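Bumping with the actual sequence this time:
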Amino acid sequence: MIARDLASRLTEAARKWPSITLTGPRQSGKATLYRTLFPQHRYETLEAPDVRAFAVEDPRAFLAQFPQGAILDEVQRVPDLPSYLQGVIDADPAPGRWILTGSQNLSLLQSVSQSLAGRTAVHHLLPLTRGETMRFPRYPATLEETLLTGSYPSIFDGNLDAADWLRSYIATYIERDVRTISNVSDLLTFQRFVTLCAARTSQLLNYSSLAGDCGISQPTARAWLSILETSFLVFRLPGLHANLRKRLVKMPKLHFYDTGLVCWLLGIRTPEQLRAHPLRGPIFETWVVSEIGKRQANRGEANRLSFYRDRNGAEADLVVECPTGTVIVEAKSSTTASSSLFDGSKRVRRHLAQSTDLCPVVVVYGGDQPQRRGSDSLVPWRELHEFDWEA
């Protein structure tokens, strides 16, 4: 297994906090990372029925097995366990003893926040960044292959066929996790819902349209989207809320964490299909936004991402709030460098200049030649992971 960018944050947290909580999607490498960083810790997964039954029936005796602490995987399967762990930590708050992991964000964090507030450091391990995939002996060389393959570690670690792996991932997710998270009775309709979400990646999230196309009610569409968010498959990118005299669009945008999953759900299997596909641009935009989001998560930074769109048609794919100011980001799948790639974002900069002193524009595009144009940058897709946002 390759080194993960989040590793240094976790080892630092283990020197300061008695407990660390790590969430992220299934197969993002959580257990592998912790077992690599903390080999002296015992490991137990609460996915195993006998282990889970012991933890539910006698949580004090279960925790007493680990006088030196342990890695407890899929903790959300026993929601009351953190309440009992609180007393154990208070009795011995030595740092780095307890490692809690889980693949259901909301259920785990609700349990932890109620019981372990001030006692645990929370981090998120998302699928691989482009920089992390490049640490494997074989990694996608072209943009189309990168978007198709996605960023789950198992694909690279085992040199597996991405389409086959993603097919199994979706089947396992829908058949097991969805039933665990929520009582979804119609799994075929739910899978159609997931596919319709993939077709809307990088688009404004319109619950009415989504529900109508799927044949479900709006409350059901909202509940099902929450399931996808809880499982770290999708996220909502909020619209910018700024003190501007503009009528800004408040509806969020929908994005997936993994473009390989999007392509598989849409039936895109080859680079040739992707090049000609009408959603190639939105898929690339999702890749850019998720790459920047994963970078922030790996640095332990608060989410400082939004997008800009006003009622007059001015829009920018991403607005990144950095310590040095606000950066406007555009994702353009075009392979040709052109000044026209900056046109839309420059219009947004004129609006944002009212509330910020510095608004450089970064255009991430599908070509290979980096360029600097004053304070603005044209960044090739393959160099996005190296871009210095604080410069």
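The tokens above came from a reply further down the thread. Residues 305-386 form one domain.
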